Amino acid sequence: MRAEIAEQPGVLGAAVERRGALAPVAGRVRGFAPRFALFAARGSSDHAALYAKYLTEVLLGLPSGLVSPSTTTLYGARPDLSGVLHVTVSQSGGSPDLVEATRSARERGALTVAVTNTPGSPLAEVAELSVDIGAGPELAVAATKTYSATLLALYLLVDAVRGGTGADVADLGELAASALAGSEGPVAEAVTRLRFVDRVVTTGRGYSSATAAEAALKLAETSYLSARSYSGADLLHGPVAAVGADTAVLAFTSAGRGGAAMEPVLAAVREAGADVVAVGSAAAEVPAAVRVGVPRTAEEVAPILEVLPAQRLALELSLARGGNPDRPRGLNKVTQTR
Amino acid sequence: MRAEIAEQPGVLGAAVERRGALAPVAGRVRGFAPRFALFAARGSSDHAALYAKYLTEVLLGLPSGLVSPSTTTLYGARPDLSGVLHVTVSQSGGSPDLVEATRSARERGALTVAVTNTPGSPLAEVAELSVDIGAGPELAVAATKTYSATLLALYLLVDAVRGGTGADVADLGELAASALAGSEGPVAEAVTRLRFVDRVVTTGRGYSSATAAEAALKLAETSYLSARSYSGADLLHGPVAAVGADTAVLAFTSAGRGGAAMEPVLAAVREAGADVVAVGSAAAEVPAAVRVGVPRTAEEVAPILEVLPAQRLALELSLARGGNPDRPRGLNKVTQTR
Predict the structure, then answer these.
(1) How close is the nearest chain B Cα to the Cα of A72, in Å?
(2) What rounded mean pLDDT belongs to chain A?
(3) ipTM score of the complex?
(4) Probe site for chain B from A51, A53, A57, A202 (most B CB atoms < 10 A)
(5) What is the predicted pLDDT for the residue at B329?
(6) Could you tell me which of A304, A338, A335 has the C-alpha nearest to residue A93?
(7) Mean pLDDT of B196-225
(8) What mean pLDDT is predicted for residues B283-287?
(9) Is B236 an 8 Å CB contact of chain A?
C-alpha cells in the first residue's frame, strides 16, 4: 500500500500526458448527445462515480444518477435507456454484477463506457467504449492509485466531452508529489492524536463528498475503524447528534464553494467537542486540531489531491495500531457479487 | 418517540384508506410520460427516496437517480430536465436547499412533485404537484411515523402510476400492529445483547438497503452509536474487513430476492465472528443470535414493516444506555442547509 501511494504522482502525470487517447471516446459521447448519465460501480469506484456525478451535472449540465445494479441483477428491471450515457467504473473489470448491468444497459439502448484498469477485462469487452485508467497493476487490497487515477480518468473524459484542453490538470503530477511530501508531518501528528480513537466521522461537501466517503472506506478497511461518512449537509441533518468529545472528525475543505459551505459543519462539530483534522487546500484557514494542506487547484480537481493524505493517514494509523494494511482481514480484490 | 412509533399502524391504515387522493397526481405523472425520475431529499427522507428509486426502476421501468442538491445550490448547475419526473421528499417541507432545488427543477422543465407531511409548506408551494404524507404532527426529533408513512406514500404513488389497486398494502395497518406486537420480546433480547456495543453495521439488499440506512441513522441519532450502513453487496466489497467479534450486525432479510441475496453476506459476517440480529419476514430462516420476525408481504412492501422493530431497537437501546431518545444532543427538526 505504501509503495502504491507513492506511485501516484507518476501515474497521474502519465495519464495527463495520454489524455489525447480519450478524444475518440469523447467524440462518440458528444455525437450521442446524451440526455442523462448513469454510473454503475461498487466500493471505491462508487465514490469515484459520485465524483463523476458532480462533474457531469456541473460541467456538462447533464442530470445523472448512480445505478443500483441489483435492480437489474436481482429484480430484472429493464428500463428503456435510449439516450442514456451509462458509465461503469471498475478497477478489475471483473465484478459479475457490473458486467451484467452494463450488458443489460447496452441492450436497452444506452451508450456504454467502461472505465477500468484492466483492458480486455470482461467489462471492457461488454461495453461499447472503453477508457483505460492506466494505473498499472495494483497489488494492495486497499485501492489507492487506482482510485486517484480513476478520478482523473473521469475528469479528463468529462473535460474532453466539454471540449476542454486539460489545462486545470496540466501540472497534476507535480502537485500530487507536493501534496504527498507536504502531508508527511501533519499526518504523523494526526496519527499520534488519533491512535486510540474508536469513533471517526468523515465529511465534505460538493465534490469533496466523494473524498469523505473514500476516506471512511480506507479507514474501515485498513484500521478496522467504524468510520462513518456524511456529506456536510446530511451530517447537520441528524447524525451530528452522534458527534461528541469522543469523536474524531476528518473534514475535507478545499478552496471553492464546497469548502466554503463546510463552515457551519465545522462550527457544529467543534461545538460538539470533536477533534477535527482538516484536509485540503483550505485547511489552513479553518479551526482544527491538525491541518493537512494540499496545493490549491480548480475546485473540481481538488478530490484527486485531497485523497492522498487520507490514504496515508489510513496506512499510518493502521501500522500505529498494530495492524497490517496490506493484509486486512476478510477482504478480496475482486468481489463476486450478484 | 415511543408514542409516535406506536401510532404507525393507525397512520398507515388511514393512508391506505385515503389512497384515492393520489389518483390525480398519478394521472398527471402518467400523462407527462417521464423518461427519468430524480429524487431529492435529506436525512431519513433520503432513505425513503432510495426505496422509491428501487420502486421506480423495478415497478415502473424508469431509470432514476438521487439528486445531490448541492450541484444546484452550491455550483449553480442547470441541467435540462424536460421529460424528467422530479420528486422532492421532506417531512417539514422547509429545508431551503430542497425548496431551491425543486424550484430550479421546475424552471428547467421537470414535472415536480412534493411529498411532504406539511401541506402548505414552502416545498408544497413551489412544486407543481403535492402528496400529503398525512402522518400528523411529529414531535420526536428522530423521525419514525413520518418515515414509514413516507415509504407508504411513495409506494402508493408508484402503484397508482402503474395502475395498481393497492392490493398489496390493503392490510398494512393490521400487519404493522402485528409487527410491533411481535417485536417486543425479540427487541428486548437484542437490547440485552447489544447494550454495551460500540460497533454496529447495518445491512440489507435491494429494497431493504433503504431500511439498513435508516436503521443506522436511528441508532446514531438516539444511541450515539457509530453505526454504519452498507448494501450487502458493498459490504462484501471491502468494509467486511472492519467486521469482527467486536461488531454487531443488524441484517434485514425479508422473503424475496433481496433477502435471498443476503445469504453470502450473513455467512461472511458470521465467519468474521459478528453478533447478528436478523430482522424481517425471513429472519426465522437465517442463522442469527436474535431473530426479529415481521409478517410476510410482497417484497416491495417489506421495508414499511421491517423498519418498525429497528425504530423500537433504537429507542430501547438508547434508554438502556442511559440516553434520552427524545432529546438527542445537537439535533434540530428542520435543518437550514444551503
Answers:
(1) 8
(2) 94
(3) 0.90
(4) A57
(5) 62
(6) A335
(7) 93
(8) 94
(9) yes
Structural domain includes residue B336: no
* Residue A207 and residue A109 share a domain: no
Closest CA to A235 of A273, A284, A202: A202
Residues B307 and B197 in one domain: yes
State the smallest CA–CA distance between residue B144 and chain A in angstroms. Answer: 13
Using CB atoms and an 8 Å cut-off, which of residues 243-272 of chain B contact chain A? 243-244, 257-258, 261, 268, 271-272
Q: How far apart are CA A262 and CA A234, in angstroms?
A: 12
Question: How far does B240 lie from chain A, in Å, by closest CA?
Answer: 6
| CB–CB contacts below 8 A, A to B | 218
List, for residues B143-198, the tens digit of each pLDDT value: 999 999 999 999 999 999 999 999 999 999 999 999 999 999 999 999 999 999 98
What Å distances lie between residue B185 and B56, B188, B311, CA to CA?
35, 5, 14
Query: Which residue from A minimizes the CA distance to B70?
Result: A206
Contact A286, A261 (CB under 8 A): no
Query: Cell numbers at residue A21, please?
Result: 487517447
Residue B325 lies in a domain: no
User: Torsion angle of alpha carbons A166, A27, A110, B105, nearest 10°?
Assistant: 60
Which of A58, A77, A328 is closest, CB to CB, to B71? A58
The chain B residue lying nearest A53, using CA atoms, is B68
Tell me, what's the pLDDT at B242?
A: 80
Q: What is the CATH number of the domain that holds B131?
A: 3.40.50.10490
- Position of cell 478497511? A221
Q: Is residue A335 part of a domain?
A: no
Query: Do residues B53 and B158 share a domain?
Result: yes
Distance from CA of B293 to the nearest CA of A (A): 23
The percent of residues above 70 in pLDDT, for chain B, comes to 97
Q: How confident is the model at residue A321 (pLDDT cuts 50, 70, 90)?
A: very high
For residue range B30-69, what is the model confidence (pLDDT) as tens digits? Answer: 999 999 999 999 989 999 999 999 999 999 999 999 988 8
Domains held by chain B: number = 2
Report the chain A residue with the minimal C-alpha distance to residue B79: A61
Asked if the Cβ–Cβ distance from A238 to B43 is below 8 Å, we say yes
Q: Whole domain around residue A232: which residue ranges?
A: 174-320
Domain boundary among A144, A169, A194: A169
Task: With CB atoms and an 8 Å threshold, state whether B58 touches A75.
Answer: yes
Are B65 and A61 within 8 A, CB to CB? no
* Shared domain check, A205 and A89: no
Mean pLDDT computed over A270-295: 96
CB < 8 Å to A97, chain B: 233
The lowest-confidence range among A79-83, A93-97, B222-226 is: B222-226
Q: How far is CA B139 from the centre of its chain?
A: 19
The minimum CA-CA distance between B218 and chain A, rounded to whole Å, is 9
Instruction: List Cβ neighbours of A215 (8 Å cut-off, separation of 6 or more).
Output: A202, A227, A229, A250, A252, A307, A310, A313, A314
Q: CA–CA separation, A275 vs A198, rounded Å?
A: 12
> Is B7's Cβ below 8 Å from some Cβ in A?
no
B192 at A interface, C-beta within 8 A: no
- Domain identity same for B268 and B289: yes
Residue A38 is predicted with a pLDDT of: 96
B280-304 b/e (C-beta count within 10 Å ≥ 16 → b): bbbbebbebbbbbbbbbbebbbbbb
CB contact under 8 A, B65 and A70: no
Are A95 and A45 spatial neighbours (Cβ–Cβ below 8 Å)?
Answer: no
- Decide if B63 and A84 are in contact by the 8 Å CB cutoff: yes
